């Protein structure tokens, strides 16, 4: 379980997070939503200890995050940030192998190689595993980075805008894979995501942020409502049910 209490983050005089507290459910695909600048990326960076908070505490399985040793925390929680640039020419398989570093220290054994194989297969990257990253499309590279995160084999997976600049095909594949990680491997997956229709059709639980605060949270059916979405985004969004799928119409 991940929980946080009274989180505050400031950049100079600007408050980015303002007294944020919540206990996140386990074994769910959790979407953090809200407009740009709401504090979503800052929050998951603090949860993963990439960024320090100014006030408040974060707990991973009831243990304050500052008390975790780096190696142990890397086996419990993983994060994939928005920008994934490597100034080195490596293959997909080599990249995915990096996910095993907390366990192998860079020297992969037979079990590590097996887990790398499983992560590559999970993302459907078998035919790309020996190709270099710079030979792949943006969507294929993103799937390779997610495979690396899967290979890290953590209970909690945090992804910051994993669908950014991807086409519908790759976006759908990624969201289906994240669902499978929750359902088949009992992971807790937290995603920062802007496409509200991917959220409404794939997420189990939603945390809505605005101006550095959590203004609403709950199951998808509780959040994907016209009045709730109006409060989050300040625009009118119609919600229609199409064969059991909730579609948000906001183009008018």
Describe how the helices and strands are arranged:
Elements: E1 2-11, E2 14-24, E3 29-33, H1 40-47, E4 55-60, E5 63-64, H2 70-74, E6 77-80, H3 92-98, H4 101-104, H5 110-122, H6 138-151, E7 156-160, H7 168-185, E8 188-192, H8 196-202, E9 205-210, E10 213-219, H9 220-223, H10 226-233, E11 238-242, E12 245-249
Parallel strand pairs: 3-8, 3-9, 6-7, 7-8
Antiparallel strand pairs: 1-2, 1-4, 4-5, 9-10, 11-12
Helix pairs in contact: 3-6, 5-6
- Determine the strand fraction and express it as a percent band: 25-35%
* Multimeric state: single chain
Helical stretch count?
10
On the 0 to 100 scale, the average pLDDT is 94
The counted number of beta strands is: 12
Strand ordering within the main sheet: 6-7-8-3-9-10
Rg, alpha carbons: 18 Å
Summarize the structure.
The chain is of the alpha/beta class. The chain contains 10 helices and 12 strands.
What does this structure look like?
- The protein has 252 residues and is of the alpha/beta class.
- Helix content is 35%, strand content 28%.
- It contains ten helices and twelve strands.
- It has helices at residues 40-47, 70-74, 92-98, 101-104, 110-122, 138-151, 168-185, 196-202, 220-223, 226-233; strands at residues 2-11, 14-24, 29-33, 55-60, 63-64, 77-80, 156-160, 188-192, 205-210, 213-219, 238-242, 245-249.
- The protein has a six-stranded mixed β-sheet with strand order 6-7-8-3-9-10, sandwiched between helices.
- Strand 9 and strand 10 form a beta hairpin.
- Helix 3 (92-98) packs parallel to helix 6 and helix 5 (110-122) packs across helix 6 (138-151).
- The protein is globular and about 50 Å long.
């Amino acid at each position: 379980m991940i929980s946080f209490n009274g989180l505050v983050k400031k950049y100079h005089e600007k408050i980015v997070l303002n007294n944020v507290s919540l206990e996140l459910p386990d074994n769910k695909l959790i979407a953090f939503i809200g407009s740009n600048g709401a504090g979503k990326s800052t929050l998951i960076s603090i949860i993963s200890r990439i960024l320090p908070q100014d006030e408040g505490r974060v707990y991973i399985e009831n243990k304050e995050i500052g008390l975790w040793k780096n190696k142990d925390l890397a086996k419990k929680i993983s994060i994939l940030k928005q920008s994934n640039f490597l100034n080195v020419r490596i293959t997909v398989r080599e990249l995915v192998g990096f996910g095993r570093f907390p366990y192998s220290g860079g020297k992969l054994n037979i079990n590590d190689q097996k887990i790398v194989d499983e992560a590559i297969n999970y993302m459907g990257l078998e035919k790309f595993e020996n190709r270099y990253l710079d030979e792949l499309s943006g969507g294929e590279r993103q799937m390779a980075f997610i495979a690396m995160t899967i290979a890290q084999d953590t209970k909690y997976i945090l992804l910051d805008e994993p669908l950014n600049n991807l086409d519908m095909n790759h976006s759908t594949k990624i969201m289906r894979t994240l669902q499978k990680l929750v359902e088949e491997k009992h992971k807790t997956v937290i995603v920062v995501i802007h496409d509200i229709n991917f959220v409404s059709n794939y997420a189990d639980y939603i945390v809505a942020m605005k101006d550095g605060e959590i203004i609403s949270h709950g199951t998808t059916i509780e959040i994907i409502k016209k009045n709730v979405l109006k409060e989050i985004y300040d625009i009118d969004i119609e919600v229609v049910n199409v064969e059991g799928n909730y579609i948000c119409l906001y183009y008018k």
